[in-house]
Every structure is written in structure tokens, then in C-alpha cells.
Design brief:
By secondary structure, the chain is mainly α. It contains 14 helices and 4 strands. Strands 1-2-4-3 form a 4-stranded mixed sheet. Helix 5 runs antiparallel to helix 6, helix 11 packs across helix 13 and helix 12 runs antiparallel to helix 14. The longest helix is centred in the C-terminal third of the chain and has 37 residues. The radius of gyration is 24 Å and the shape is elongated. The protein starts with a helix and ends in a 5-residue tail after the last helix.
Length: 390
Amino acid sequence: MLHGTAVAQKSDSPHAREYNLIRRWITIGDAALGIALLLFLLVSGLSADLRDFALKLAHRNYVLGLLYYITMLTLLSKAVGLGLDYYSFRLEHRFELSNQKLRSWIRDELKSYVIGLVIAGILIELLYFTIRVAPRSWWIIAWLGFIALFIFFAQIAPVVLFPLFYKFEPLDNEELKERLMRLSERAGTRVRGVFEWKLSEKSKKANAALAGLGGTRRIIISDTLLANYTPDEIEAVLAHELGHHVHQHIFKSIFVQMGISFFGFWAANAVLRWAVEQRQMFAYTSDFANLPLLLLVSTALSLLLMPALNAYSRHNEREADLYCWRSIPSVDPFVSSMNKLCDQNLAERRPSALVESLFHSHPAIEKRIAAAEDWSSRQTAASSAAPHSE
């Protein structure tokens, strides 16, 4: 029997409230620093100076000069945000959520920077190549390329990118593995295996996911989840993840991203033409000193759409929860797993409406538990009211 009243009355600890408040301020501070840097690069003329210096280093070779410019820009961005990055690392230790040593964190930061530089270098080189060869229609071509790359990276992430930061091993609990594979088969999805995610090497938090697309789709379960949760609770967590597949949330999200990015590239083109043709901020559209302006357009659009995208994500999470409840014998393991995850990850049970709108892609834990209990009660009542044959 579920103890709905007791759960509903459980509130966030001062520890959890403080942790999440600080995390929000870090998020706000990081966004503010990024915007301030982009504005400074444009207003001060530093972006043009970096372009000139990059082209000088490259002996006026455009492609090589752009690569040098990207490198300098990313180094500058990393230097500006390094203080907050380190504070975030220390914050996880302060609240006893991290196992990661400083040396490991530094290695991850370096790997993250190098990978980001390689990806950014390829994408931005392709972007400005498109602008040079098709100055009027570049934004449509770039949009199509963005969608293709978005799908490509979603597919390769579990097998190429994730292992660069974490270890993954085939799950050696055959009974649990078979149970989860049967659950995925009932959901109509094929997975390439069930893997144990060695998250405890860096974090005390717990997580699980259905990662990848097509041939790379796999179930990954953190060792922190395996160590502290019952098989029923793990099944409930995975059933939720499979709910995203059943409701085709990945593909729906791709279509949403297609619409947003189409508008974003159109807006970037309009702003770029205004800056070149009306304001004479740049001599020509392929002047890569205008990159901070394009990044500002992308940032502004992301911030404006954040509440709507969070609301859409919460809708998807509610649909996945409903699939989970229908797929397991009882919602009790779902409720207990939500409570455990909330405590282990220091998540917020009942954020304010404003905080939930701006920062939360998942419904509040309290709402998810209450919805599960309400659904279970309605199912029990409907079963009791149904006529019984003699």
C-alpha cells in the first residue's frame, strides 16, 4: 500500500535547497559571462583584432586563419568561465556528491576542451565555407547540415563520446539483464546490450538511460543505481526511459529542433545582413569576426525559448511516466525509486512554479509521485467497480 500522504508532506531539506539555489546561480552566472564576453568582443573591436591576428599567423589563408580564430576564441571563453567551472567542481564535493579527484577533473576539462575545439572547428569551418559559396542561401544549406549532424552525433555519442569520459562494461547480472531486455522487447525496441556505467569513479549520483539511435541504442545503468536500488526499482527507472521510445520522443524532439533551428538560421541571416548592409559592422558576410554576433543570436533564441522547451520536455516526461506505470505490476517501485533518486542526487521535490518553468526539464518529484499514486488509486477503483462474472 502506498503512503501517499506521508510522501506528499515530505519537503526538501535545507541541504538540497541550498545546493539547488547555488546551482541555479551558477547557471545564470555562466550564461551572463558568456553573453558579456560576446558583447565585449563585438563592441570593443577585439573580435576584429583576433581575426586580423589569426589571418596574419595564417599568412592570409582564410581557412587556416578561421581555425586560429576559433582556437583563440574558445581559449578565451574557457579562461573566462574557468572560475565557475572549478567552483562547480568544488560544490559537488562540498555537498558530498562527487568522488572525482582534482587530477581527474583537470583531465576531463582538457578532454572536453579538445573535443569541443575539434567539433567547433569542423562545424564553423563548414558554416563559413557555406557563407562564402552561397552568401544568400547559406542559412538554408547550413540548417540542413545542422540537422544531419545533430542526428549523427546522437547516434555516435554512446559508442564514441561517452567512453572518453566514463567506463562502460557489459552488465554481469544475467538475471537483471534478461529482465531488462524483456522489458525493452515489450516496448518494441531493440537494444544492443545492457551496460554498467562506472559512474561511481566520479560521482555519487545515480542515473540510467536508453542511449543512442538505431544500431547504437543501448541500455546504460550506473553502478551507483545497481548498488542501491532493487531490481524492481531499476526496472521502473528503465520502464520510464523506454516510455520515451514508445512515444517516439526522440524523433519528435528532432522535428522540434528542426523547426527551432530553421528559425534560428533565418534570424542569424537577417541579423548578419543587417550588420553588414545597414550598420557596416563588417565588410562582408563571410568576415568571421562576426562569429560572436551569430553566437549571440543563438544564445538569445535559446534563452527566449527555454520556458517553452522545458514545458515540452516535462510533457514528454509525464508521458514516459504513464508508460512506466502501465508496464510494471505496481507503482510502488516507481515511487520508491523517485524518492531515492531525489535524496541521492539532491534534487528538488517542490520547486516554485517560476523555477520549474525556467530550469526544470522534468516535472517536480512531488508532482510525479502524486500523479503515480493518483493513477494507481484510479486503477484500483476502476478494477473494484468492474462487474465480476460468477
